[in-house]
Amino acid sequence: MEPFCGGVAVSLALAPAKAVLNDRNPHVINFYSWLARGLEITMPMENDEQQFYAHRARFNDLLRAGQHQTAEAAALFYYLNRTGFNGLCRFNRTGEFNVPFGRYARINYRRDFLPYAKLFQRWEFRSGDFETVPLEPDDFVYADPPYDVPFTQYAAEVFRWEEQERAAEWLARHPGPVVLSNQATERICRLYAKLGFDLNYRDAPRRISCTGDRTPAKEVIASRNLGAGGCGSPKSTRQRAKVVRPAGPALNPGG
After folding, report:
1. Residue 55 pLDDT more than 50?
2. DSSP letter for each residue of 104-156
3. Is the pLDDT of residue 229 over 50?
4. Where are the domains of the chain?
5. Which overall architecture, per CATH, does domain 9-244 show?
6. What is the arithmetic mean of pLDDT over 70-91?
7. How far lies 114's CA from each of 16, 35, 60, in Å?
8. 198: which residues sit within 8 A by CB, 6+ positions away?
9. pTM
10. What's the rounded Cα separation, in Å, for the pair 191 and 189?
11. Three-state secondary structure call for residue 157
12. Among 116, 13, 118, which residue's Cα sits nearest to residue 74?
């Protein structure tokens, strides 16, 4: 189970037979839902500033018209995320996509997503608050919430410190195996340690920031309940993988 599924890199790597993938950003989930139906993109896609702003305006028109769940919206969201500045997925307080044009020398766009359809059809996609995701006691949960940094506005709402605490406490109550990643700020490490997580650290490049900074940043990998009966040895054939937030290299549809 992934409550902050973002780019679904972990789920794609594990390829579980069943998975529940949630993200608060409904446009990410709409994109995956259309991938499960074999999305093919036919609209023009070029690394061109004029085209980018025309597609961005069309995408925001669809949002205002309540057509955010269409195949066109999914295709536009993919293009904007691939072409926008630094791979950001950012919305203003009125819900409009407001990322500026990126500065890439070359972009490889994908038009045919049929190879993903069979796998995605086995998975359940949801968009909502992480606490609304149903959990079985033995579910393996991988959670990658918005990092504890100043920029946390991946959807129309901001992910504040109170939500970092709420997410960590919710995950700490789960009796099954949990793996949780975040930026290793002092307060995050203190919070996870207080809740009984085992902490490991690694240096990781910054994949996203509002400044384009990609210098190494220390990341914490927190885990609970990984012993006998955990994710290495499922208690039953019903066990599902459930996953939670930012981008993977394969699809990168929501930073």
Report:
1. yes
2. -S------B-HHHHHHHTTEEEE-S-GGGS---TT-EEEE-PPPSSS---SSS
3. no
4. 9-244
5. Orthogonal Bundle (1.10)
6. 95
7. 18, 7, 26
8. 222, 223, 224, 226
9. 0.83
10. 5
11. coil
12. 116
